[in-house]
Amino acid sequence: MTWTRLKELAETPLRGLTQPTRSDWIFALRTVSAGLIALLVAYALKLDHPQWAMMTVFIVAQPVAGMVLAKGFYRLLGTLAGGLAAVGITSLFGADPWLLVTVLALWIGVCTLVSSLLRNPEAYGAALAGYTAMIISLPALGEPHVVVDLAVARCAEIVLGIVCAGVTSRLILPRLAADAIISRLKRSILDLAEYAGGAFSSGDPASLAALQRKLITDAQSLAEMRTYARLEAPSFATRAHPVRRTIGQLLWALSAARTLHSHRAPKNAALIPMRRDLKAFVNELAATPGALDDTGPWVVRLDAIAGRAKEMPALPNDTGPNDTGSNDTGPNDSSEDKVGTITRLTIAGDFAEALKQVLRGLDALRSPISRKSNERSQPALVVHRDYQAAWRNAVRAALATLLVAIFWLTTKWSEAAGTVILVAVVSSLFAARPDPVQSAWGFFTGTLIALPFAFLVGQVALPALPGFGWFTLFVVPIMVPAALGMANPRHVGVATAFAINFLAFLSPHQQMIYDPGPFFAGSASILVGILIAIGVFIVVLPADPWVTVERISQAMREDLARLCLHERIPRRSAFESLAYDRINQLMPQVQRTGRKGDPILGGSIAAVTVGLEVLRLRHAQLNSAVPHETVESVGNFLRGLARELLFRRPGEPQTATIAVARQYAASIAERSDRFEMLQIAASLRIIAAAMEDYPDFFAKGRG
């Protein structure tokens, strides 16, 4: 394996994205075709705002068919909920404009709150329910009797766009989520092999850290794709359970590889054969073309490696000098250290077993077998919900919408209604993004770029050359590059904003006329609305990434404390899914802080290792072969560890918990050479090592 290859993999999100691929072209042409079909049908049905049908196609457009169906489904739900809310609110409060806008602002706040607690595409549907009510209700101000007609027309336009987008994405050269899951899982397995090969070879830390982030992100994407695939085809439900289990095994293998890299002992004679076998295996797996076409031979080899890791090695009778509490950064490097040897052999076996289960999961996805199994009771991936951030987002969206609405009612500037709507849309839609200001600014940029194109086509070309044929001739050369940009992760935000607002500015109707006054007035209201929303993100309750980081870190420490103290021992998979979901939420916040955040990310991964060792200790307490005094000692340690996690602050001296862990480990190793006893000692040692590596992460924050 070459490190050039590893660096290329680590930099994949940043490179190779400017040249459209065949899939990008298919996506672009399919999306533009669906948009034109939706517009043509809207013309035939004589809908009041046909542009919404075509805009909806671009709003829900995604490269994967299941993602289109998911976003379209939740957009439909959000539109229906917003339409019903608009009818109800306008019917009750439409006689009083001030009361109406106040209730609408509160509704937007509630929907933003719910949206911030959910994940895409559910979050998108909740946000949409908020500002859809505003879009429908404001035109009915003073005429509440027309609100039902407006709601019905709006829903009809949205449904038309969703149907066109969904049908074309599913029938015209579709890229299915089920296939994408298998493809991404195969790529993740090879990335894991590259990571493990680098970890076992003392590779470049920066490249390993970048690839580690990619693996965590891909694992979360796999969880999301599972939902998309089930919407594509209900038959995929039988494969949803292997996906869920395989994600946990993938992350377990990643954690084990990282631990082996952080606490390696190359001079230990009992470990050298195991490390050599693992290194040879992952290097061969990563370098073999089509290696995952047949996983059988790889599974057999991993099974043999995992079996050897569980065998009791020949250990010396005496222990090295560092077994009694030295301040080493991990299990001791001495070949005499039997506790360290058992620790590393256990983790190596965990890695081999986890990778074996991942390969079996891949086979289960490719060849699903319908059978009853108690494995189906495995919990779904748990999500971390940041209630403080959700309330902040709700207050900002409601307050911004209300203040601009008050300005509109006070000045009676008719075009300010568009400003109110855009403030509601942007402040709600981008509220939960890691950097809402950057997201909103990208939306503003795309909108601004769309303005001259819309003017030239809608105010100059189409009034002179009317008809759907000329419309297609003028619009397709503009919308195809926009759709290509939407397929590019680096430009998706700006390109999507361009496509949507180009159509909004253009406002295509069967009879286009030259009328620049309303065009520029409406365009100005939209741009001003976006800028006001950006100002709200900056000024009103601004988000500090460090506060969010500390809040998630504190939640992880509380998770560990519960593992120590709770009477019921949770499933390992449940803890892993929760921990890695929190890490996935930490990553975008940490990335905003630069290299200052690297210790936080490292500490969060170490927290997973600590949690897994705590679970190992909890299960050891239930083992009848473990002496009662050892069970009591482990219980005392876990209670002390919980106090350390919950109450010690950064900068304060560590309590005796770590020293106690090392003393217990040394005492157990001196009293017994039984494998289960040495594993207890090893767990104590590795918990102490992890907390010493990242002392501030395992301390209660100041926030």
TrEMBL record:
Coiled-coil ranges (or none): none
Q: Does the record's keyword annotation contain Transmembrane helix?
A: yes
What is the protein named? Answer: FUSC family protein
Composition bias, kind Polar residues: at what positions? 319-333
Which keywords describe this protein according to UniProt? Cell membrane, Membrane, Transmembrane, Transmembrane helix, Transport
Pfam families the UniProt entry points to: FUSC
Q: Which InterPro entries match?
A: PHBA_efflux_AaeB/fusaric-R
